[in-house]
Amino acid sequence: MSNRPLHIVILAAGKGSRMLSDQPKILHQVAGKSLLDHVLDSALGLNPQMIHIVVGHGKDEVMAAFEHHTSRSLFSWVEQTEQLGTGHAVSTALPAIPEEADVLTLTADVPLIKQQTLSDLTACLDTHCLAILTATVADPTGLGRITRNDDGDITGIVEHKDANSTQRAIREINSGIICARRSELADWLTRIDSDNAQNEYYLTDILGLAHQDGAPIASRQPAQNHEVMGINSRKQLAEVERLYQRELADLLMEQGVTLRDPSRIDIRGDVTIGADTIIDVNVVIEGPTHIGRHVTIAPNCIITASRIADSVKIHANTVIEQTEISSGANVGPFARLRPGTTIGENARIGNFVETKNSKLAEGAKVNHLSYVGDATVGRNTNIGAGVITCNYDGANKHQTTIGNDVFVGSDCQLVAPVEIEDGATIGAGSTITQHVGKNQLAISRGRQRQISGWQRPVKKKLR
């Protein structure tokens, strides 16, 4: 490999008008990460000395989106005040790149490009001063064509709008990804012109100049053509999303995860899943999330920014957000675990139960139709159907503390702040507003009466 430092230029200045969006195109997302984020991931894997990101349309929004990126110290933001073409964009970044460097140019709207593909391409600069990533496609319509002579040497690139009928029949296309030695690149960029259908300075014109100078041009192709698929429309964004999701699904299955239907799972952001976990259809998992081994996840669940330990069962239609679930717990169906929830080992959260900012200890059970918010629930405590912790007084939130081995009957309201000590029993239908001591029975409801001979009201007949 070359001892020359690597500098990467990412072209991110375009408006993306075909997206019909107020948001810059490169901030649209695939699998929960922006297009630019995906390209940066591959670029950073090459250990560059610096990454120069050429911005224009929506530059403030783009720069703000990466203000806290962990590798931001490697980013140099370069503004292209006029969008005069890809050659002009690279020229704006060139002054900050040292003479002895290798330069790799990427486009920010090609999110599936692999680090290995880029590594293979930059390795060409050991023996060549210019290399390009190409692809051979079935339908090259709208794409720049690679021209070669009878010996197979690359002689240049012709854009679709500038191509004649013979050139349009060529199926080898330009990916937009080029690497070159900085010294030669600078010379070629000063010699390109805008004499074309778009009146722009094309970076790709440097290939024709290199051929004229007698400089051999290397080329490589990606393992799969979709690596170089660019995004210019919502349709293409959706196509790339499905391609990427299938890649993630295949990787999970290779790691020992069972997917009932690999085409019906969505992974967004940083997600890890242990072996022997089984995931049914229509599950969405958003990172950062860790799911352990031997977990089962039923259909139509959404899991966001959570940690799920081994051997947890999550039943259908459950929504989990910013929650920690310990091993052996059982959740759902139709449960909603909101941020700040912690579920202990072998605990049970049943159907139509909602929790928020609450901790349930080992073996605790909330089986039906209950709300537990701003609460601590002790070991082996059972909370009956229809129980509510009344944690909000209209202005402030208050804490409910429930000890170990407590039994709370159905249809109770626990008005916070309130504490129920170990072993207490709360009679069904009670409204608890005061402290309940250890092993005490608390009942707060009107005495039942039976009225004999009572006549049920009847509707008046209309004349």
How many runs of DSSP E, i.e. beta strands?
41
Q: pLDDT average, as an integer?
A: 94
Question: What percent of residues adopt helix (DSSP H or I)?
Answer: 10-25%
Give the neighbour order of strands across the main sheet.
12-15-18-21-24-27-30-33-36-39-41
Number of helices: 8
| Poorly predicted runs | none
Q: Using only CA atoms, what is the Rg? A: 31 Å
Largest sheet: 11 strands, parallel
CATH homologous superfamily descriptor of the largest domain: Spore Coat Polysaccharide Biosynthesis Protein SpsA, Chain A
Briefly note the CATH topology name of the largest domain.
Answer: Spore Coat Polysaccharide Biosynthesis Protein SpsA, Chain A
CATH class of the largest domain: Alpha Beta
Please report the distance between the alpha carbons of the first and last residues. Answer: 100 Å
Region (Pyrophosphorylase): 1-234
Active site: 368 (proton acceptor)
GO molecular function, one term: UDP-N-acetylglucosamine diphosphorylase activity
Subunit structure: Homotrimer.
